[in-house]
Write a structure and sequence with these properties.
This protein is an all-alpha fold and about 270 residues long. It is about 80% helix and about 0% strand.
């Protein structure tokens, strides 16, 4: 009996600790942001989010995040395919490098882009001679977003390729289907849930990127100022209301994306 009671007490204490950790680090900060944004009422909130600089920053962030997500879907799907379906020297090293953006501080990633593509670099200098500016313009922001969100699609696709029943693919070839038709009708549908989930997570992560972008964007209002940098500027200007209002927009959009990801994954498990 004492053993059972101790087990129940330990289980209760463990669950309580996890819930307390979750509440303190996630729930309360989220409640705090929503409370701060609406503390003065609806009118100040609406005025903050419809401010021209704020609205331009949010729209620019969404636009460039979409570009970065499309690039990640294309490259991530191909890289995931190559790493699973092909065997070649250095494959394991390349596979481990996929997670590097998760481990590397994003500011370091921004510095790498600045040194590689900046005006004084070989690539940046040649691009400047051709009249194409990279750093301190929108292309640098997209590159930074692609870098920090690089692993999502790859890691979303790889498990599905590993779990896929190869007998369906072989049956398609046996029935005379070409490689292209087999890929589009047999392989791609199996990969699609991972691609969608990875794309939505990459988009949500790109929306919130700050460290890599702030070094390469130039942060010009109305041109290269994205939402996360705008929020930082509002905090520095002692405008917590404006920062919280824009944060609520991004946070709500992230919640919607997270819900969509969970829906996709639930449907995949149901199948």
């Amino acid at each position: 009996m004492n053993f059972i009671m101790r087990g129940r007490l330990w289980s209760f204490g463990f669950r309580s600790t996890v819930m307390l950790y979750f509440i303190l680090l996630i729930v309360l900060p989220i409640i705090g942001i929503y409370t701060q944004s609406f503390k003065l009422g609806w009118a100040p909130f609406w005025q903050s989010v419809t401010d021209q600089l704020a609205w331009e920053a949010v729209l620019l962030t969404i636009k460039l995040s979409v570009f970065a997500t499309v690039i990640n879907v294309l490259l991530g799907t191909m890289i995931g395919w190559v790493l699973i379906r092909y065997r070649f020297p250095g494959r394991s090293i390349l596979n481990s490098f996929v997670d590097l953006p998760f481990a590397l501080p994003t500011a370091v990633g921004g510095l790498m882009i600045l040194l590689l593509l900046g005006p004084n670099s070989l690539v940046g200098g040649q691009a400047g001679k051709l009249g194409f500016e990279i750093v301190f313009h929108e292309p640098a922001i997209v590159i930074a977003m692609v870098f920090v969100t690089f692993p999502f699609v790859i890691r979303g696709v790889q498990p599905l390729l590993e779990e896929m029943d190869k007998s369906e693919e072989e049956a398609s070839y046996t029935l005379g289907a070409s490689r292209t038709r087999t890929f589009l009708q047999v392989i791609f549908p199996s990969m699609l849930p991972g691609i969608i989930s990875g794309a939505m997570l990459a988009f949500s992560r790109a929306l919130a990127e700050f460290g890599a972008v702030v070094l390469v964007a130039g942060n010009i209002p109305g041109k290269t100022l994205i939402a996360s940098v705008y929020i930082f500027g509002e905090i520095e200007s002692d405008n917590a209301q404006g920062a919280a209002a824009v944060s609520v927009l991004l946070l709500t959009l992230s919640f919607l994306i997270l819900g969509a990801v969970n829906l996709v994954q639930a449907r995949r498990r149901a199948k």
